[in-house]
Amino acid sequence: MTAKPKATHRFYNHSSESMPEIKSDSIALTVTSPPYWNAIDYDRHANDNGESWYRSREYGEGFVGYDEYLDLMQRIFTEVLRVTKPGGFCAVVIGTVLMKGKHYPVPFDFTGRMQEAGWDFHQDIIWHKTTAGVKRAGVTIQKPYPGYYYPNIMTEYILIFRKPGPAIYKDANGHKEESRFEIDRLFTMDTANNIWHIAPVPPRTIDHPCPFPEEIPYRLIRMYSYVGDEVLDPFLGSGQTSKVAVALGRKARGFDTLQEYLDLSERRVKEALKIRPKQLIARFEKIDLGADLSTSHRSPASIQPLLDLSAD
Fold it and tell me: Which of 85, 167, 207, 234 is buried deepest, with most CB atoms within 10 A?
């Protein structure tokens, strides 16, 4: 009798505060993006065809206030720690939040909660979205005086944590060579740095309010897991992590409280990857400020990044 092949993915319709379906010390890597605090109404997006979902929610899943949000995140990622292998990793895409004129340092407060839960802080990567962001510099342009400066928000953080334990390169599970990733121009010019220039997903291409681009889990899964490993997303959403994990020969596990997103992920996990063939890298050139140099203490030149397309 032929053995039945193991499922490459399993999705569960409940909160990831408790994940009894997953054994302790079994997940190699988590790649996820938690819901934005008081910024996006996921329930309304799922039920209103995506027409009205920005910054309108008082959450019905255990938090309204900022501290309650952080409490929930700490509970969930404490459970993620339980299911993660010793030495395994957790990568979290998370950004700061503007709410009623106040700017909340969510990534930094979240990092503190992760350390309290038992995670080791491993690395921070800045995701430069290149074409999207919250526009804030208009006030500065209108009033170019000290105290009026508010930069446009063009980034989110990719925070990487590690469960204490042995280094994963010491236990490749027989998949060392097939898990090796290429060192190409894109790697040396972008991935090797802790600022990644990746364009966001174009609006309305995926039926979800804020999917991160496939390029993010594609890079993380190849660098922090081996072929055959289990990869978790405790906030499944549109299934970006699971889709990429399965395509890269990993097993995917995902949780979401909304059945609509489980159904969407189930469809998408069977689709081909959509890694864009042309990726962005940053080039730098000196610009002569010329007549703009009004004081002697300023440098005669500054560095300005240019975004270039690299087809690797």
Answer: 234
The total number of structural domains in the chain stands at 2
Does some domain include residue 127?
yes
Cα dihedral 70, 80, 271, 95 sign: positive
Q: Give, for 151, the enclosing helix (H) or strand (E).
A: none
- CA-CA distances (angstroms) from residue 102 to 96, 97, 210? 10, 8, 22
Residues 91-130 pLDDT 10s: 999 999 988 888 999 999 999 999 999 999 999 999 999 8
Q: Measured over all CA atoms, what is the biggest interatomic distance in the chain, rounded to whole angstroms?
A: 83
The alpha carbon of residue 269 and the mean position of all alpha carbons in its chain are separated, in whole angstroms, by 18
Mean pLDDT value across residues 217-235: 97
3-state secondary structure of 109: helix
Side chain identity, residue 29:
L
Residues in the chain: 312
Nearest to 247 by CA among 220, 265, 226, 269: 269
Domain coverage including residue 172: 9-276
The CA distances from residue 298 to 140, 147, 151, in Å, are: 20, 20, 21
250 & 308 share domain: no
Distance CA 41, CA 23 (A): 31
Kindly state whether residue 93 falls inside one of the protein's structural domains: yes
Separation of first and last alpha carbons in the chain: 45
Residues 6 or more apart from 57 whose CB is under 8 A from it? 38, 39, 40, 41, 42, 43, 44
